[in-house]
Amino acid sequence: MSPGAVGQRLVACLLNISEARSKGIVEKVAQAAIYNSSGGQREGTTVLNIFSDYDYNRSVITIVASVDRIREAVLSACQQACQHIDMRGHAGDHPCMGAVDLVPIYPLGEEVGLEECGNEAKALAATLTERVPGTSVFHFGFADSPQQRGLAHRRKELGWFKKHLDLETVRPDVGEKLQRRYGLTGVGASPYVMNCNVTIDTRDVGVGRLVAAGLRESAPGGLPGVQVLALPHEGAVEMACNVESVRGAPPEPGWPSFTIGGEQYCHVPASLVTARVAQLAGEHGVGTTGTALVGFTPLECRGLAQRALALGIGEFWREQRRVRM
Q: The Formiminotransferase N-terminal subdomain domain covers which part of the protein (predicted)?
């Protein structure tokens, strides 16, 4: 199959699960997306990357397929996660509400629109709650009709940012009353969201919160599309940033851009996020020690997916260093 043939109608799901301390479980979830129940490889489906963080006890699995095939791949991965992850015994430094915490679907080019991704996300959510009785879902973005509330907005409404969540007060959009074993899963669709984490050289989370306050989109002089949490991480503080793609032409040279449905989108480059964190942390006498990109930029994700699918590589996360050299 040629790269041109597999490049059509691609979408990505950056599946967030509440497990990172068992490599075996994480890989079982990833493999469930690639292989069917008979062990055969799903056509036109690949897992590009697995990013696991021990302290957070959270993994992000990048699944790519055509919009017509993504649902079954992601559902199979979610079923595997729900089988092996029990939120009643979960511990980790990253906020979470569910064994499968987040299921975002992103279009990877002109061929698929945001409304189609939203419809696919809603269908996925309904099927998940049917296949795994006891699971519950909230919608966000283009799956949240007609409000189209963003992920950060919905998480705040539902108490995702709280240290201790009272599940009795949460009302899911799909599914019955929450079961503590599975928790609550966010399912939605939006333009691509990149995850960029910058570590600052302090144990003082209070300093991290001051940096976050100046960095996020809502702050005067903040970066467009950036949502951020300051979290303790490996003896320091990590600025865990969601970098959302925003509608419009790049405001400055060097901002990556792409189009969806004839509309242009762009996102803050990771280098600018790093530089702004360094600037804000420096105002408090703190330096930075490194930046980690969780997965890829939107353009990298599309390009690598086309290559992986053209080569027929399902478990691309095992091959990416060799293939990308």
A: 9-191
Q: How many CB atoms lie within 10 A of CB 267?
A: 28
Among residues 276, 263, 284, 159, the alpha carbon closest in space to that of 226 is found at 276
Token pair 């511990």 is found at 91
Please name which of 254, 87, 115 lies closest in space to residue 184, comparing C-alpha atoms: 87
323 phi, psi to nearest 5 deg: -70, -35
CA–CA separation, 85 and 87 (whole Å): 6
Identify the band that residue 162 occupies on the pLDDT scale cut at 50, 70 and 90: confident
Torsion of CA 70, 75, 78, 82, to 10 degrees: 180
Q: What is the largest CA-CA distance in the chain?
A: 57
Residue count of the chain, please give it: 325
CA distances for 94 relative to 15, 23, 54, 77, 102, angstroms: 15, 18, 10, 21, 13
Q: What is the DSSP letter of 317?
A: H
Can you read off the two tokens belonging to residue 93? 């430094």
236-244 and 45-53: which strand pairing?
A: unpaired
Q: Where are the alpha helices (DSSP H) in 114-243?
A: 114-131, 151-158, 205-215
> pTM for the full model?
0.94
pLDDT in tens, 82-132: 999 999 999 999 999 999 999 999 999 889 999 999 999 999 999 999 999
Quick check: 21 and 54 in contact, CB under 8 A?
A: yes
pLDDT band at 322 (very low <50, low <70, confident <90, very high): low
Across the range 154-174, mean pLDDT stands at 83
Residue 3: pLDDT band with limits 50, 70, 90: very low
CA 83, 28, 139 angle in degrees (round to 5)?
60
d(CA 25, CA 31): 10
Strand order across the 257-260 sheet: 246-247, 263-266, 257-260
